[in-house]
Specification:
Strand content: 15-25%
Radius of gyration: 16 Å
Number of helices: 8
Order of helices and strands: EEEHEHHEHEHEHEHH
Shape: globular
Structural class: alpha/beta
Helix content: 25-40%
Strand order of the largest sheet: 1-2-4-3-5-6-7-8
Number of strands: 8
Amino acid sequence: MPVISLGPVHDGSAHLSAYLARPAGSGPWPGVVAIHEAWGLDDVLRRHADRLAAAGYLTLAPDLYSDANMGRCIVGTMRSMLSGHGKPYADIEAARRHLLAAPDCTGKVGSIGFCMGGGFALVTASSGFDATAVNYGALPRHAGTVLRGACPVVASYGGKDRSLSGVAADLGRTLDTLDVVHDIKEYPDAGHSFLNDAPNGPWPVRPLLRIAHVGPEPSAAKDAWARIEVFFGKQLR
């Protein structure tokens, strides 16, 4: 599957690359924008995109760190996720528009995000997507305002993820109030990044991540992926 260039975005001075995963056979297919974790567009995220393609979704994963290395980008990108504005939002919108313009896309486009990407998926849920899958994404500030008019949301959280304690319940209450279609589940035996099929992140920090319950939990991941595929099937097909 190729890495492609989406050309200049934002103010015209920044370029965006992305990983494209195409289903087998001939389309058209629904599209999905896959938004990576804080660790960047790595092999784990590429396999997530490949999995979605195998399920019949034209999947585009923009590299939010296209213009610099992860170390230089991560702080600014996280700040953008929390503030609700900045270059990453232009990148995500460029990916959505690229799929909409693709002749092998049906015109239905969803999003899926993991960790930091899950936060972006929530903030952009009311910006033209037809459905979103939020995986251990932080609740945005002023969530009642940000999520007004949001697309349908399927969300998965880990009960051992202390960094997001209570977020699943808070998100559910917010979406109930806003009358947004949703499916939210917290897995008691899972931690952060539990959908990953392998540990990721810089090697020196991986032992610390394991201690903090960050990483794969196959049983919870299997159930979460099944829910995502059913939800996307209803909303995007």
